[in-house]
Amino acid sequence: MQQITVLGSGVLGSQIAFQSAYHGKDVVVYDVDARVLDRLPERWAYLAAQYRQDLGDATPERLDAAVARLRTTTDLADAVGDADLVIEAVPEVLDIKRETWAAVGAAAPERTIFATNSSTLLPRAIADATGRPDRFLALHFANNIWLQNTAEVMGHAGTEPACSDAVAQFAEEIGMVVIRVQKEQPGYVLNSLLVPFLTAASKLYVRGVADVETIDLTWRKATGAPLGPFQIYDVIGMQTPYHLSRSSDDPDQQQFAEILKRDYIDQGKLGRSTGQGFYDYR
């Protein structure tokens, strides 16, 4: 699969696109907001700097070639018109994802395989919206994709096995360690472990048990972990935790969503990718 389309140019969508281009794929990045796409050159420069810092093979020539393989558009039909694989990384809201996939299913070639990067939603909740549920599955990446390079491949009961195999091969081709999830599981393997941990941290914070720095310090010192939970929130970015917390029935989580929106998202403090989140990285 050479022609790749990424739907959504947020923190992880941009990383998926750049990683794919870095490994030789031709990538179209789609977003509904042209202003967001206009800012992507700054994002490519940021990612290139991270690759140079963290990867031994990230030469200027290779990074320039990756950027040259990236194209942006606000026209969905144009974005998916020649796609071998469409990877969706739009907000973690079921209605938005289903609406997006219905439009993709109507416009993409018959050969196209569809993959969602959803963090929590099951493939079966979205698959029928595409009109081609047998070609739909989940392909979930961790943040900082070039370093935390896992790719969880998870189909639903109706996914054609050959499509799962093709997506797993694609993931290997772009430098991922493939995790084959054997049955549908909310949160896959990674987030089934990570989300309860982060939720516990947010509850300690919302309830006033300890502040952000103390919670992180406790976890790092007591376990030897390199990052505390709020440092991990900054890596993930604020948008996904906000959407998940806002949709929770837990009053603590709803309060946490309000804090994320008021004190961070509305202030442009979206995490490490913007230089500020719970911590200041400038």
TrEMBL record:
Keyword Oxidoreductase among record annotations: yes
UniProt cross-references to InterPro entries, sorted A to Z: 3-OHacyl-CoA_DH, 3-OHacyl-CoA_DH_NAD-bd, 3HC_DH_C, 6-PGluconate_DH-like_C_sf, 6PGD_dom2, NAD(P)-bd_dom_sf
Keyword field contains Oxidoreductase: yes
Alphabetical GO biological process terms: fatty acid metabolic process
Pathway annotation: Lipid metabolism; butanoate metabolism
Record-marked site positions (Important for catalytic activity): H140
Keywords: Oxidoreductase
Domain of life, per lineage: Bacteria
Gene3D superfamilies xref list: N-(1-d-carboxylethyl)-l-norvaline Dehydrogenase, domain 2, NAD(P)-binding Rossmann-like Domain
Domain 3-hydroxyacyl-CoA dehydrogenase NAD binding stretches: 3-183
3-hydroxyacyl-CoA dehydrogenase C-terminal domain segment(s): 187-281
GO MF term (any one): oxidoreductase activity, acting on the CH-OH group of donors, NAD or NADP as acceptor
Family of the protein in this entry: Belongs to the 3-hydroxyacyl-CoA dehydrogenase family.
NCBIfam families recorded: PRK08293.1
Protein name: 3-hydroxybutyryl-CoA dehydrogenase
